[in-house]
Amino acid sequence: MNRYSIFTLARNALGGHRGWQAAWRSPEPKRRYDVVIVGGGGHGLATAYYLAREHGITNVAVLEKGWIGGGNTGRNTTIVRSNYLWDEATHLYEKSLKLWEGLSQELNYNVMFSQRGVLNLGHTLQDMRDIERRVNANRLNGVDGEVLTTVQVKAMVPIINDSAHARYPILGASLQRRGGTARHDAVAWGFARGADSRGVDIIQNCEVTGIRRDGGRVTGVDTSRGFIEADRVGVVAAGHCGVLASMAGIRLPIESHPLQALVSEPIKPVLDTVVMSNAVHGYISQADKGDLVIGAGIDAYVGYGQRGSFSTIEGTLAAIVELFPTFSRVRMNRQWAGIVDVSPDACPIIGLTPVKGLYFNCGWGTGGFKATPGSGWVFAHTIARGVPHELNASFSLERFATGRLIDEHGAAAVAH
Amino acid sequence: MLMIACPWCGPREQTEFAYGGEAHIARPADPDAVDDAQWADYLFMRTNPKGCHREQWNHAFGCRRWFNVERDTLSYRITSVYKPGERPAEPAA
Amino acid sequence: MTSGHRLAEGGRIDRLKPLAFTFNGRRYGGFAGDTLASALLASGVTLVARSWKYHRPRGVVGAGVEEPNAIVQLESGAFSVPNARATEVSLYEGLTARSVNCWPGPEIDFMALVQLFSGLMPAGFYYKTFMWPRRLWKKYEHYIRKASGLGEAPAVADASTYDKMNAYCDVLVAGAGPAGLAAALAAGRSGARVIVADEQAEFGGSLLSLGSAPLPRIGGRAAGHWLDAALRELRAMPNVRMLPRSTVFGYHDANYLTIAERRHDHLPLGERAGCRERIWRVRARRVVLATGAIERPLVFGNNDRPGIMLASAASTYVNRYGVRLASRAVVFTNNDSAYGSALDLYHAGIEVAAIVDSRRSPGGEVVQKVRDASIEIIGGSVVVDTRGRRHLSAVRVVQMDGERLTGRPRHIECGLLAMSGGWSPVVHLHAQSGARPRFDVARACFVPGEAIQGERSAGACNGTFDLESCMGEGAAAGAQAAALSGFVARATKPPAVEASAPKAQPLQPLWLVPSPRGVSRGPRQFVDFQNDVSASDIALAAREGYRSIEHVKRYTALGFGTDQGKLGNINGMAILARELGQEISATGTTTFRPNYTPVTFGAIAGRDVGELFEPVRTTALHAWHEERGAVFENVGQWKRPRYFPRDGESMHEAVRRECLAARNGVAIMDASTLGKIDIQGPDAATFLDLVYTNAWRKLAAGRCRYGIMLDENGMVMDDGVTTRLAENRYLMTTTTGGAARVLAWMERWLQTEWPNLKVYNTSVTDHYATAAIVGPRSREVLSAVCSDIDLSAAAFPFMSCRQGAVAGAAARVMRISFSGELAYEVNVPANEARHVWDALLAAGAANGITPYGTEAMHVLRAEKGYIIVGQDTDGSVTPADLGMEWLVSKDKDFIGRRSLLRPDTARDDRKQLVGLLSEDPSVVIPEGSQLVDDASASASAPVPMLGHVTSSYESPALGRSIALALVKAGRRRTGEMLLAPLRDGRRIRARIVSPVFLDPEGTRQNA
Amino acid sequence: MRDTVRKESPLIRLRLDASGAATPGDSILVAQERPFLGHLNIRGGRGDARFAATIARVLGMALPIAPNTVVCDRDRVAYWLGPDEWLLVTPAGGDTVIADSLREALRDAFSAVTEVGSGQTVIVLQGRYVRELLSKECPLDLLSPSFGPSACAQTRLAKASVLLRPLEADGMELIVRRSFAEYVWAWLSDAGAEYGFRAGT
Ligand SMILES: Cc1cc2nc3c(=O)[nH]c(=O)nc-3n(C[C@H](O)[C@H](O)[C@H](O)COP(=O)(O)OP(=O)(O)OC[C@H]3O[C@@H](n4cnc5c(N)ncnc54)[C@H](O)[C@@H]3O)c2cc1C
Ligand SMILES: NC(=O)c1ccc[n+]([C@@H]2O[C@H](COP(=O)([O-])OP(=O)(O)OC[C@H]3O[C@@H](n4cnc5c(N)ncnc54)[C@H](O)[C@@H]3O)[C@@H](O)[C@H]2O)c1
Ligand SMILES: Cc1cc2nc3c(=O)[nH]c(=O)nc-3n(C[C@H](O)[C@H](O)[C@H](O)COP(=O)(O)O)c2cc1C
Ligand SMILES: [Zn+2]
Fold first, then answer.
1. How far apart are the CA of D30 and the centre of ligand 4, in A?
2. C432-443 pLDDT, tens digit each
């Protein structure tokens, strides 16, 4: 593997950059692997990477029906934070955040993880109570958090509408300074390169069309490129996990919905912080390229079309202009959607299934990008050991039968 | 942007409606007769298909009636609309 | 014949209307009808921008929405527009614009120093660098950010307003070139409702750019006359709506299209009135796409210098705007259409030094015409490089044999290079509709594929490039669309076209001009001008394994710009295909998404900002509250008085006064926002038994009962008091925020799960206003205005309801209490509310009746340990958690019951509602505080938490602070001391007590 | 006694009574509130043939059976709201008497009659551009001639629910909920400014 650095870059510049190797190979699938990972999004690639790195399991294939990172990993608003409400969620996302903090160096691939701070605005008295509760819990859990007044919010984000006469005036906010954004595509590519260099086969344009089992055990997967044998299969297919579950004859408490996003034309830097608002429902950051990256709402209906309703975009931009009146004349350049896998408690399902050797990692819904390294880390552990890590033990499928939900809806914070 | 034919009011725009999720999930007649897993199945498990989906909609800004829609979740095309208690029209051969 | 850079005659500009404008601080002149781009070119300004990454000098390349380079900041202050395309900006008097992304200006740009390092900056270089040392990334990124972005967001709020319109039509025609106009005429004549939209200021599309030379005749008259007549006819049709300056920017499901109409920006600032832009949301039965085609640039060395532009753009500047682009030009092409451009230049008096044609032996009618004009044609040759500092000065032409360059290079001096690599049909809307364009090898372009929705493409966007066929297709598509919408379209023959584009010789695909030194070492061959993506970047991406066109797009930023790759994408795809040894069809396109061109946020937000962002719901007593100086709180969409400060009072003082009045005298509150649902029918009790946890059948008429309802997961979702008005009639109250949700919830169960239950629900939230009269003196006050109800405790006990007249209004009076005091809630028709309220205040004046708001209400209820759903619960709380097992019937089913039996939900050590008393009674524990026990208080993170404070107040009645909290196994811990560690380092000690702080026996409310 | 009760309409705070009369014209669009009318919500008829007959007998008029239509009878208008739901709008004060007699007559039928007159109000718009104005944020095809007198529709206007009824000669009646009335009015006057929106009495 070529090392990436300013020196190798300079050296290659002399040769017209013709010396670079492929970041990952494009091998033909083998007949058998120790572990097959279904889904070449960030989570699947991270799982393969950590399987190889942490557990020495390298006879692994990542099967991706399209191009790696082309699912939600490549179409999300890239917000990373760990200030969740419930302990279980906080610990999982904090593990992830810690991994983010060294990820570029670890992968030798700059994923542009940018800790520019995440603000969650409060607009009602109850919002503020919830913010207090969450920030207090975060700090006791060892996660950084602050509660800001309106004046402090304004000082951080001078262009925000702090009018007391706004329909829903800003009453304050929570701030996690270690939160921020990352370059989504680079995350997929960096993990792919890391996994590939440790022997993992990344196989694109390979759609899993069936999950074979022998009684209660998984034996492999049928794909658009033939049958691939494996006695451990980890499914990390986000919006498509329901489809894959039905291939294995199991049902999941998941619905797949379109979640839209949009970007403005690139403008000079004006917004240095990630701003999220639940009550006014908009969230926004400015990418390093200059475009404003804006998350639009989720459409209520089940949808696999990677597109949503225009009315949702209208509502989102009204919220953005309400929060940032000076953005009124900025123009929207492009919009798109992903397919998010929403669970009843807005928390993921990571663990074993009734089928032996078959593992699922899904339900990240509108907020799993930030979990990418952590999710891969715990899932690798779960697959390697056959039991969940303590960080994901609570995120089992059984919780829906026992009632032990981890209800992040209660946090009254959008889960991005 | 869907156009949904309310069985009473006729075609109306999506923004007049509220979505209600998968249809034909019957509440267990005797909840005590089912075990926790079966109850969880009723409460949470969804078929969530990529393709033909039968789902509930409510004409919230109109006649406030609930009804069923059969819709393709990939193309978003609506293939049938029918009242509660009815079955969808068989697709024309 | 010419004066400077403007032709003496011709074009659609009005030379009698000169306009002055400012660009980069210098004043220039133009004419009405100009765009900013044409006016700049006619003023001799060709260097208008610097490129995004390398800060290379750039000029105008196109003449329309495809323009990647000429991005300007228009105006300033509240009128500022970032990233306007000079080619789209209509000139007006006083226009001010400046270049973006360069400092101090495009001529001298210090940022251009980065060109020295451009070798270190191939595609994706940042993924390989800026990683060490780790902590410096923030700094690196700071500079990366500074260098990025084009224009600037305005610094002040927008002064303009925006509008939206819903519209239905039978036929929507997108694009009003010859194909679109033919379609609109055919459909319009049938009587169908037609909308025809075009993004340009004038209708006519490519007809507006026709030169005087090979001028086609349509229907026997000059093309311009045909156009005028067509527009006259369309304007006269009442069923046709014409929308100029209107871009169809999105094609959504179910033939729903969105159009952005720009109504203002072509006017001088002082003349702008009404809304600036209007979004049309169109439901079309059928759609005719007639969006034309965009010419393709050619990819060769240093193909980005100012002075190099599309051949069709050159024609447009000459023909439509009368711009004399240069004195000497070279044309570089692989197809016939640029020959027309050469003739346009020639007829405008521009010397055409040569046509460089990659085809070995160009021939045919148009070629002959060029030969007749004594223009040299250099066949089988390509331009491989160009010269010039800030403007093109010469091109280097080499013979090409297959892929090989041969022979001696030849330098030709010129100030304009007009290039044409063929045409790309604008298949964007077709693709957005869900259809898949397919690559047509013969025509070497993507053309529309099979339609998925009710649309059809006609004209150049369909890959049809001669005028007569374009019009024929348009007319046919328009007639068909009308017919499919149920109209009878008379089969009118499309007008005959004479002398349109003469029979063409086939184009020779030329996606990448071979580079003399190889793609990676030779001069940069730009593919995407805006994002500085060159052919070598694409090759590098392919080499590094980014093989999908989607990866290449994301790795190189190809097509990521404000132009969305309208010029460059196709060349990029073809270059990638070549690198991978694939067919172009195998490489495919990236996904076409809205918006076709960028749309203003404000327009999409429309009126839903400011005052109209969300409805403000107010009660019938709102005016009174305002008069009394209430401070309001948002509760859902409602405005509720939070407290009523008297002169100079703080909130604290006001709330204290209000609470004491309720406890000691009499106080009054507007409770109208509570949801009220009139439930009628023989099965009403059965139904209530299902939606509430407790039992309802035995409640006597005239009696009230508190109930909580659960979601099916067993968690508390709402609560309230319901009154049995009659045998088969109940009046349910809900929380303010929950009213709509609860009604919808109940309707859903009734209609879908239990349709056999005979129950009707009717919302009466708005019909009744409610005044709560609270306090030991409340009976006295009420009796003064209500003589026909016996208010004595015996005749009208707690939790019952009576009908009678209050201040003359027909009222329902409920003796219920959310404060623990003797209290009455008076419901009257809202139209009569103010009358009754005034009477109650007058009657209570002697007793010092005190209006109170939600804050005092919260204190009063907390003293009694009454919960607020949403504050003391959060969607994960069961009745048992709240200590309300007594409200949960064991003898019947109800929604959520089964869930309560699950092992986790039935645990008895869940978080439970308790009271908390801080050790220091003067300390109010902040709401949201987390609670820990002594043992873990000094532990390091993660500190185990036991629960949190949900409500916390100073209680005037108790003379100390009180709080409610949810605590793990809280009831068992009663008496234990917990700690609330605050963020400021303080730790508040508090003891767990019963949540009922006041009058647990209920003597006061039963008084 | 009741007569002495002072009433206030949902739009009282706008002081429309002070705004004077205006006549609709090409550049003027006039809006008026019709306050204090009687509004009765009537439910019933699910599988009960007698219901319609009883209503017709008591009211002396039939309820509209076709969805989204109205039946007008002198000064009363009955609106179809749903397959078992109607709205009857009567002159001021007329609702109480009718409600009582309906309840009496429908004593044995599964039905509900509910006064909602204070919970909503009527706004009448008049002028050439009324439908265009409403089209801005109402998703119905209002410019279609099929939405004419005798039709009605419950729909959405911006973020409020409204019940629309076309009147003769460019008129449109809007029935809105009390707590949304000021919002709807504010929206109408903002969006209607370009058509010369005026309050009339
Ligand atoms: C608009 C939007 C905004 C968001 N914003 C945020 C945010 O700000 N912060 C945040 O933390 N999260 C956010 N999310 C959520 C986040 O994107 C996802 O949770 C996360 O990226 C999921 O990663 P993944 O790797 O599990 O899924 P994906 O990246 O979707 O990967 C799953 C992969 O599985 C593949 N696949 C599916 N079926 C098959 C099959 N049968 N065979 C083979 N392969 C298959 C898919 O092609 C896909 O590539 C957002 C999501 C969206 C859509
Ligand atoms: N000689 C050649 O090779 C060649 C190639 C291409 C076109 N042509 C000529 O060009 C003409 C094509 O006619 P046509 O009518 O098909 O196209 P056109 O280019 O004349 O008209 C298309 C119109 O649609 C507008 N438009 C495009 N997208 C739009 C959108 N999303 N919203 C609103 N407006 C939009 C454009 O601004 C333009 O005005 C013919 O005369 C043809 O001969 C010739
Ligand atoms: C964080 C982020 C920033 C983006 N910025 C841009 C941008 O500046 N320009 C652009 O054209 N698209 C941008 N996109 C959108 C992509 O072009 C693309 O629409 C998205 O990845 C979804 O893929 P699809 O449209 O091919 O389905 C961005 C996407 C993301 C997730
Ligand atoms: Zn309906």
1. 30
2. 999 999 999 999
